[in-house]
Structure formats: structure tokens, C-alpha cells
Amino acid sequence: MRELAGAEISAQVAQMCREANIYLGEDVYRALQQAVEREESPTGKEVLRQLIENVAIARGEQIPICQDTGFAVFFVEWGQEVHLTGGTLEEAIHEGVRRGYEEGFLRKSIVDDPLRKRVNTGDNTPAVIHLRLVAGDKVKIAFAPKGGGSENMSAVKMLNPSDGVDGVINFVVSHVREAGPNPCPPIVVGVGIGGTFDMVAVLAKKALFRPLGQPHPDPFFAALEQQVLAKINDLGIGPQGFGGRITALAVHIETFPSHIASMAAAVNLNCHACRHVERVI
């Protein structure tokens, strides 16, 4: 049994919070550069160039890519041969978020009561944590600062099994059309299919953590990702909603077995600043 101190988790999380908000991942950066070459609209090209310039400014001046430093969302794979010492996992992650957002001068965007007083918690906690136990003696932590604007453009729909592939495509494409410029395109589209009402939303969120350009391992779903992406880019919404070919940089699909009477589907959109980092401890 390997022992891992909660303080180590907190230190790693604090660093991840700062890094993710300042440095856009190379996968997304490359996708933006490639989008400039594919965009047909002069206005769209100029918008994409400005987004790329914004990435360079954030890196050079060590400031956030976007003022919305988001919900602190974590997917954790915890090796069952690891014993945590010095507190609970939630305490360790929350402490890391507090330190990371404070030390990085990152905007705190979380309110404690979602309906009544809506008082800011002051440290961007609590984080949203999805935990899965896995084999081994390692801990994998994936973090994304998820902006509120794109998060608002999310949806779950309980389709009928008879709706089939066309039903999923129509749901996703129609939802992106209705969202329009609100999620700050070019977007990354996370799609969940299967499972329960709650599970399918988690799948859509998890899909956003996959590196851009990495297709689904199943050829059928990899082809479906490209089919949906093409239909979305035919909408003409374009970068920041000014029109053009590049409305989305990628579509990522995640699936889970379904009940015989159900076919849940979910869409979770991310803006062009699809920020995500991970550590293996």
C-alpha cells in the first residue's frame, strides 16, 4: 500500500489551477491555428487570429486567457493501492483550489447559495469532483476551469431508442444552432450518449477532457463525431458568431450502456478556450 499525503494533492491542484488558466493546451492551440487555414470568411479569419494572439499574450504576461476562470471541475482516477493521509480527498482538492486561485489572482466565480443570497464563497470552492476507483498505485487528476457562459449552453434530452442515430445528430446540431454565439465559438462539443439522466451529463463533460484531434476508439463513433462536426460547421455561425465555416473545433462523444427503454443524450459545450490539464501522481 502506497501512502500519499493530502498536502501533495493540494500542491499539485494549486499548480494545475494556475497553469490551466494561463496556458492553453497545445492541442487546442494547434486546432485554432488549423482553423485559420480552413476558415473561408475574412472576418472569421481575423477573429481566429485575435484569439491566437490572446493566447500568446496570456502566456507572455502570465495572465488568464479569459476573465472567466470558471467552475473548478475535476475527474480523479484513484488507484486502490493508494492510501491518503492528512485529511480527505475533497479537503485536499478544495485547499488546492483556494491556493491556486488566490496565488494566481484568478477570478472567484462561485456563489454558495444558487437561488437566494448568491454570496460569493471568495475562493472558487467548492470544486466539482468526479471520482473513480481504479487498479494500481497511481492517482490521475484531470482539471478544467469551465466557464459559466459555455456551461449555460448545455442540455440533456431523454430520447427514444427508436430515434436512433438521426435523433442524436438532430438533437446535437439543433442545440448548437440555438446556442448561436453565446458559448463563444469556435466551440468544442462534448456529447454523452446512454446511461441515466445524471450519468449522460457526466459523459458529456468528460468528453471535453479528451485531447483535440484524438478520435473515439470505436470507428463507428469516430465517424459519427466527424459527421456531427461537419453538420455543425455547415450552420454558418462561425468564430464568435460573426459567420464562417468554423463554428466548432471538434466533437467528442462518450457512451455508456443504456436501459432497453431509454436513450439519454447530453450536450456540454466549451468555448474556444477549452482549458484542461492533468497530472499523474
What keywords describe this structure?
4-stranded mixed sheet, 281 residues, 40% helix, 8 helices, 10 strands, alpha/beta, 60s Ribosomal Protein L30, Chain: A, globular
Précis, in short:
The protein has 281 residues and is of the alpha/beta class.
Describe this structure in words.
The chain folds into two domains: 2-20 and 65-146, no CATH class; 149-273, 60s Ribosomal Protein L30, Chain: A, CATH 3.30.1330. Helices cover 40% and strands 23% of the residues. The longest helix has 20 residues, at 42-61. The model has no long low-confidence stretch (mean pLDDT 97). Helix 1 (6-22) crosses helix 4 and helix 2 runs antiparallel to helix 3 (42-61). The chain has a four-stranded mixed sheet. It is built from eight helices and ten strands. It is an alpha/beta fold and 281 residues long. It is globular and about 55 Å long.
Give the topology, please:
Blueprint (H helix, E strand, L loop, with lengths): L1 E4 H17 L3 H13 L3 H20 L9 E9 L2 E4 L3 H15 L24 E7 L4 E8 L1 H5 L2 E5 L4 H16 L7 E8 L2 H11 L11 H15 L14 E9 L6 E8 L6 E4 L1
Helix pairs in contact: 1-4, 2-3
| Number of H/I helices | 8
Mean pLDDT: 97
Structural class: alpha/beta
Q: What is the level-2 CATH architecture name of the largest domain?
A: 2-Layer Sandwich
Return the CATH topology of the largest domain.
Answer: 60s Ribosomal Protein L30, Chain: A
Low-confidence stretches: none
